[in-house]
Write a structure and sequence with these properties.
Helices cover 53% and strands 12% of the residues. By secondary structure, it is of the alpha/beta class. Strand 5 and strand 6 form a beta hairpin. The chain is globular. Bound molecules: BIS(adenosine)-5'-pentaphosphate. The site of BIS(adenosine)-5'-pentaphosphate has 38 residues, from helix 3, helix 4, helix 5, helix 8 and strand 6.
Length: 253
C-alpha cells in the first residue's frame, strides 16, 4: 500500500513502534474538497489511530434519525455550520472512546473559534492535566487548494457508503464505473455536493474557519501544506510534519 511505502521516504519508525507510541491530537484543517477525508484515512492507517470526522458523525446521526441528526439535517443541506454545542458534544463523546486514547485525527473540527477554545480546554482537562499524555498540543495541518480546483474535486467526488472509500471521477476513478473497488458497492454522491451548496460551504470556510487557522498560526502550531499535489505526495508531507513534531516533543520531554 502507498502509505506503507511512504514510510521509507519519511523515515518513520517500524509499524510495531507506531502501534505502541502515543501520537496525540492531530487536527486537519482545509476548505471543502481539500482532501481532509482522503488524507485522514491514510494517517489513520499509518499510526493506527482513529479518524474522527465531524461531517461523517453528523451524517450518521442524520441517517439514524436521532434528534441531533434531525436538527443538523437542514443546516447541512444548506451548507452552513451546525451549532457549536451540538458538534462539541459529539466530539467529546467520541474522544472518550478507548480507541482514541493514544491519539486521533480530527477531520473537519474545530471549524469555529469557539470550537477551537473548547478543544483546548477539553484536551487540557481530559488528557494533559491527568498525566495521560505529556503536554502535547495538537499538530494542526492546513491543506490548501485553489478555489476552482476545489469545485471540480467536490463535484467529481463519489463515496462508498459501505467502506467510506473516497473516489473522484476525474482524478481517482474506480476500476469499474460507479462501483467501489473494495467491496463492489454502488458509489454515491453526497447531498451537499451540489454547486449552490458547495459555494455556501466554501463561504462558511472563509468566514468561520480561516480565523481558526490564524489562531493556531499565532500559537506557532500550524503547518500549511500544498494539497494540489498527487495524493501520495501530500500524505508524505503530512507524515513528515507529524513525525518531525513528535521528535521535537520527545526531545523536549
Ligand atoms: P464535512 O463532511 O467535514 O465536509 P467538508 O469540510 O466540506 O469537506 P469535504 O468532505 O467536502 O472534503 P475533504 O477535504 O474531506 O476532501 P476529500 O478527501 O473528500 O462537513 C459537511 C458538513 O457537516 C458541513 O458543511 C457542516 O454543515 C457540517 N459540519 C461538519 N463538521 C462541522 C463542524 N466542526 N462544525 C459545524 N458543522 C460541521 O476529497 C475531495 C475530492 O478530491 C475527492 O473526490 C478526492 O478523491 C479528491 N482528492 C483528494 N485529494 C486529492 C489530490 N491530492 N489530488 C486530486 N484529487 C484529490
Amino acid at each position: 500500500m502507498a502509505v506503507i511505502l511512504n514510510q521509507e521516504r519519511v523515515g518513520a519508525s517500524s509499524m510495531a513502534e507506531q502501534a505502541l507510541r502515543n501520537i496525540g491530537p492531530i487536527v486537519l484543517l482545509g476548505p471543502p474538497g481539500a482532501g481532509k477525508g482522503t488524507q485522514s484515512k491514510r494517517i489513520s492507517e499509518h499510526y493506527r489511530i482513529p479518524q474522527i470526522s465531524t461531517g461523517d458523525l453528523l451524517r450518521e446521526h442524520v441517517k439514524q434519525g436521532t434528534p441531533l441528526g434531525m436538527e443538523a439535517q437542514a443546516i447541512m443541506a444548506r451548507g452552513e455550520l451546525v451549532p457549536d454545542n451540538l458538534v462539541c458534544d459529539i466530539v467529546a463523546w467520541r474522544l472518550r472512546e478507548p480507541d482514541a486514547q493514544r491519539g486521533f485525527i480530527l477531520d473537519g473540527f474545530p471549524r469555529t473559534q469557539k470550537q477551537a477554545a473548547w478543544l483546548d480546554a477539553f484536551l487540557k482537562y481530559e488528557f494533559f492535566d491527568n498525566g495521560k499524555w505529556q503536554s502535547r498540543l495538537p499538530i494542526v495541518i492546513r491543506i490548501e487548494v485553489d478555489y476552482n480546483k476545489l469545485l471540480l474535486r467536490i463535484t467529481g467526488r463519489r463515496t462508498c457508503p459501505t467502506c467510506g472509500r473516497i473516489y473522484n471521477v476525474h482524478s481517482r476513478p474506480p476500476l469499474v464505473d460507479e462501483i467501489c473497488d473494495v467491496d463492489g458497492t454502488k458509489l454515491v454522491m453526497r447531498d451537499d455536493d451540489r454547486e449552490e451548496v458547495i459555494r455556501e460551504r466554501l463561504d462558511a470556510y472563509e468566514r468561520q474557519t480561516k480565523p481558526v487557522a490564524e489562531y493556531y498560526e499565532r500559537l506557532g502550531r500550524l503547518a500549511t501544506i500544498d494539497g494540489d499535489q498527487p495524493v501520495d505526495d501530500v500524505t508524505a508531507r503530512i507524515l513528515k510534519e507529524i513525525d518531525g513534531n513528535a521528535a521535537t516533543a520527545s526531545e523536549g520531554s
